[in-house]
Amino acid sequence: MQERHKNRKQYFDEQAYTTEKYVIPYIQKQYEITSASRILEIGCGEGGNLKPFLDRACSCVGIDLNEKQIENAKEFFKDHINVSKLELIFEDIYNVKRDFQFDVIMLRDVIEHIHNQEKFMKFLTRFLSDNGIVFFAFPPWQNPFGGHQQICEGKLSKIPFLHLLPTSCYSSLLSKCGENKETIQELLEIKETGITIERFEKILKENYVIKKRDLFFINPNYEIKFNLKPRKVFSILQNIPYFRNYYTTVAYYLVMKKEL
């Protein structure tokens, strides 16, 4: 695994930077963030995306299945001035029994890892206030590194579109190139759960309305990672079904619950 993915504090700082500079301004086009806002991040990891909200004294909850990352988050936030307004939970979201209601729910680079996304998206509505907003950011499956092969240890980490190989060929290649079983399992799982723009929007229609969507040719997160300025996909190219998945590095969405 490359150094960026091993260094969790660096990853935390990169998340915080992009959320502060790009994600919060994007959300505020639909919902004003104030100290009274209640924020939930599902798949929060170490909580880097929550930091800019906590800096604004928002009430924040982060939930993740990775116990080690939740422990890291508690360490990273222990001296934060607003730490009393942060709750970090090591749990499966389906097992959370408390009556949570949030103004903003964030899933940044998470939905593409979730099994049975139809079930999850319907379940998510119970945590969203009537006028709340959900922010999604995800890499469409067919984009050059939509399979997350950048986490590979060796040369395969730099090969675009590798993940589009048939599963048997992909698995065999990963093994022959020396990737460990854990990495191979993770990459094959992402191959199973990866999502396209078209399928994502089809799932949304059941319970949500889209308030804003932008597709990026250069992911805003690439600024802090690679010193590249974000670039949206040209408008005419954003509306070409299927093909847009190949040149979109991240899709940003703001959605709200459908009115009953």
Give your account of this protein's structure.
- The chain is of the alpha/beta class and 260 residues long.
- It folds into 2 domains: 3-142 and 194-257, Vaccinia Virus protein VP39 (Rossmann fold, 3-Layer(aba) Sandwich); 149-193, no CATH class.
- Helix content is 35%, strand content 21%.
- Strands 3-2-1-4-5-8-6-7 form an 8-stranded mixed beta sheet, covered by helices on one side.
- Helix 5 (117-124) links the parallel strand 4 (102-108) and strand 5 (128-138).
- The termini are far apart.
- The model has no long low-confidence stretch (mean pLDDT 95).
Task: List the SSEs and their pairings.
Elements: H1 3-6, H2 8-27, E1 38-42, H3 51-55, E2 59-64, H4 67-77, E3 86-90, E4 102-108, H5 117-124, E5 128-138, H6 167-176, H7 181-193, H8 197-204, E6 208-218, H9 222-226, E7 231-232, H10 235-238, H11 244-247, E8 250-257
Helix pairs in contact: 6-7
Q: How many strands, which pairing sense, and closed or not: the largest β-sheet?
A: 8 strands, mixed
Number of helices: 11
User: What portion of the residues fall into strands of 2 or more residues?
Assistant: 15-25%
Distance between the termini: 46 Å
**Gross geometry:** globular
Nearest-angstrom radius of gyration? Answer: 18 Å
| CATH topology value of the largest domain | Rossmann fold
What is the name of the CATH architecture of the largest domain? 3-Layer(aba) Sandwich
